[in-house]
UniProtKB/TrEMBL annotation:
One Pfam family cited in the UniProt record for this chain: Transp_cyt_pur
Family, as annotated: Belongs to the purine-cytosine permease (2.A.39) family.
InterPro entries noted in UniProt: Pur-cyt_permease (IPR001248), Uracil/uridine/allantoin_perm (IPR045225)
Protein species of origin: Glarea lozoyensis (strain ATCC 74030 / MF5533)
Presence of the UniProt keyword Transmembrane in the record: yes
GO molecular function, one term: nucleobase transmembrane transporter activity
Protein name: Putative Uncharacterized permease C29B12.14c
GO CC terms in record: plasma membrane
Lineage, uppermost ranks: Eukaryota, Fungi, Dikarya, Ascomycota, Pezizomycotina
Length: 240
């Protein structure tokens, strides 16, 4: 590796050189950083396989009680489904999605490789950019939805701490589909999220996983319990 002559970079490569993953020397990464791989793409090092069944269960549990998942019910009801039909649709969709997720995750369980590498089996080295692009677009949409809801949560916290923020006048037009407070909250949420993402690698996030899942479960279940009490239970749910 030390005797290899580095090929001159073209303009596009130089432009995005800042985003390249630096080569690591603390773990074995086969061929270091090349055009087709780096330590994020090679089989995960044993020292970084820190998640057990409880960790993965908590991840999926957290996804299931996230704001995006919880709002599915109200979205389906708004489209005209009854409460019972909504429960059936969400449950059925979850079962199908879980089966697909398990099948897609099996190569990672056996060979400790990620989605981007496993795609090369079916799409080839260059063709894999197609599913990667699809996933990237979906990830941007999901991240945007999460940032919007996270911004609303941050705005509520800021309003509770600072009375002046609570009474802040909205300076954005109605066509913006967001208020000034929620926009500031989204910026604050995104800044906190990026800082955590930058300084905490995924294999070290487990320390925050369990408390965050517990807090999220309490936050999500409390309004649901309150609504059930006010509605006198689940009676008439199928006709709702």
């Amino acid at each position: 590796m030390e005797n290899e002559v580095e090929k001159p970079r073209n303009r596009l490569e130089r432009m995005f050189q800042w985003a390249e993953l630096p080569e690591r020397e603390d773990i074995y990464t086969w061929k270091g950083t090349t055009k087709w791989g780096n330590h994020d793409l090679y089989p995960i090092d044993k020292s970084e396989r820190t998640y057990g069944w409880m960790g993965y269960f908590t991840i999926w549990f957290s996804q299931g009680i996230s704001i995006s998942s919880v709002t599915l019910g109200s979205a389906y009801v708004a489209y005209g489904l009854s409460a019972g039909e909504t429960l059936g649709a969400v449950l059925g969709g979850t079962i199908i999605a879980s089966a697909i997720a398990w099948l897609c995750a099996r190569p990672g369980m056996d060979y400790h490789i990620g989605y981007t590498v496993w795609n090369r089996v079916g799409f080839g080295m260059r063709g894999t950019y197609i599913p990667m692009g699809v996933v990237a677009l979906g990830g941007m949409v999901f991240a945007g939805i999460q940032a919007y809801y996270g911004g609303q949560a941050a705005a509520i916290v800021l309003s509770a701490i600072f009375p002046t923020f609570h009474s802040m006048e909205n300076t954005l037009p109605e066509s913006a589909a967001i208020t000034t407070k929620n926009l500031i909250g989204m910026i604050v949420y995104t800044a906190i999220f990026l800082v955590i993402l930058w300084f905490t690698p995924p294999h070290k996030l487990k320390r925050w996983l369990y408390p965050s899942a517990l807090i999220a479960a309490l936050v999500i279940s409390s309004p649901g319990h309150l609504r059930l009490v006010r509605a006198s239970g689940l009676s008439g749910l199928s006709n709702a």
